[in-house]
Amino acid sequence: MQLFFLCLMLLSPWVAALGRYHSREWRKSTKELPGAAKGAARSRDFAFDLYRALASADPGQNIFFSPLSISISLAMLSLGARSHTKTQILEGLGLSLQETPEEELHKSFQQLLQELCRPRDGLQLSLGNALFTHPKLSIQDAFVSTMKMLYLADSFPSNFGDPVGAKKQINDYVAKQTKGKIVELVKDLDSDSVMVMVNYIFFKAKWETSFSSKNAQEKGFHVSPETVVQVPMMNHEDLYYYLQDRTLSCKVVGVPYQGNATALFILPNVGSMEQVENGLNEKVLQKWLKMFRKRQLQLYLPKFSIAGSYQLEKALPKLGIHEVFTSQADLSGITNHANIQVSEMVHKAMVEVDESGTKAAAATGTVIMFRSAQMSTPRIVFNRPFLMLIVEHITKDILFLGKVTHPSYGGSF
Questions:
Q1: What is the Cα–Cα distance from 150 to 300, expressed in whole angstroms?
Q2: Closest to 315 (Cα-Cα) out of 55, 9, 11
Q3: Which residues of 357-375 are buried (b: 16+ CB within 10 A; e: fewer)?
Q4: What pairs with residue 357 in β-bridges?
Q5: Which residues on adjacent β-strands are paired with residue 2?
Q6: Which of 41, 268, 388, 389 could be disulfide-bonded to 264 (CB atoms 3.0-4.6 Å)?
Q7: Where does residue 389 rank: exposed (0-12), middle (13-18), buried (19+ CB within 10 A)?
Q8: Smallest Cα–Cα separation from 208: which of 61, 25, 338?
């Protein structure tokens, strides 16, 4: 029998934010979480390791995914894994069982989910988990109750003997939870499936200061040295977080959202994309967040909408997580059936960047004062492939991570 670990559906419809925070205000907004979440029992280098695995499998293409959601799905799966299968998952997430009890991992995710699901002004962020199981499959009560307690998971019986009906049940649930933004997460469902685990994240935010739609102009975007495409390029002059990382040969512009999140746009120097991709890690990210200073910039950023869809059973083995996808999988913490394994682990993500905002005229006076102190304003143009992160302030988790190689814009999802 097969566990169809559909797990991940991710959505970020309106990515936007031009902030008004200085570095001290960033630090003020990044309060510590209590208890185990304070020092999350996991390595966030998992995000960058997975990025490199996805990028190497599809060189030259757009990349977009949610490290947070994938981590949550793997942590949930580890609850039912045993022996070497469990060890691989936890070590892949960066947890050393010799140094940190497994309980701390789950407790940190529990507190994280509670924190992220709190209402906040100007930003919608909701995460959730669900378990669909065949009524004839004997699921361990301890597994279901722990999923509900730690991961706030819903649980539903589903007749996988009727693949069409089961698929509709799951897709209807996901569509409802994502306000109709994703209507067909499951495309194929095997009658041999006995369980589907779903994790979703819904993110919607706008820039505090919008780009003017009147300023967008068609400009050349250098997909490669040989290929240039025309894209709608937004532009705006304002105060932005900014730094140059000479070690990694890149420029970083931070654009905060309404609510506690910020988009980081990373522009490698010409010919330095591979250097940046290989050098990114949690230590570098934290250094950037501490070094950020506000600076007057002329920012040129393409409008784009990209989507990523990944079969993680192909990517995660590169991070050492492979046994769970084979006949050697030990998932006896989920069910007493010996021949159960994860057949698929699907992840989908979307992002859209446009001019949307609500405070188009904010801080005009500040702009004038800074201009009087500077003879010229640096001009940062994202007209070649760049990286993008969306970071949550309070938990400092990476909500989304990606690379824009081929910008395209198709309007609202």
A1: 43
A2: 55
A3: beebebbeeeeeebeeeee
A4: 207
A5: 193, 341
A6: 389
A7: buried
A8: 25
Burial of 183 (0-12, 13-18, 19+ CB in 10 A): exposed
Q: Are 36 and 228 in contact (CB under 8 A)?
A: no
Task: Measure the CA–CA gap between 185 and 171, rounded to whole angstroms.
Answer: 6
Residue 30: its pLDDT value, please?
Answer: 45
Residue 88 β-bridge partners: none
Q: How far apart are CA 44 and CA 68, in angstroms?
A: 9
**Roughly what angle, to the nearest 10 degrees, separates helices 102-116 and 67-80?**
130
Q: Quick one: tokens of 396?
A: 């400092």
Structural domains for the chain: 2-205+305-352 (3.30.497.10), 213-302+357-404 (2.30.39.10)
Could you tell me if residue 138 is left (phi over 0), alpha (psi between -120 and 50 degrees) or otherwise beta? beta
pLDDT value of residue 300: 92
- Say how far apart CA 76 and CA 87 lie, in whole Å: 13
pLDDT in tens, 123-154: 777 778 888 888 877 888 999 999 999 988 88
Angle between helical axes of 45-57 and 282-291 (0-180°, round to 10) = 110
Instruction: Please name the helix (run of DSSP H) or strand (run of DSSP E) that holds residue 102, with its range, or none.
Output: helix 102-116
* Angle, CA 396 vertex, CA 391 and CA 399 arms, to 5°: 40
pLDDT in the model for residue 360: 27
Query: What's the rounded mean pLDDT across residues 217-242?
Result: 91
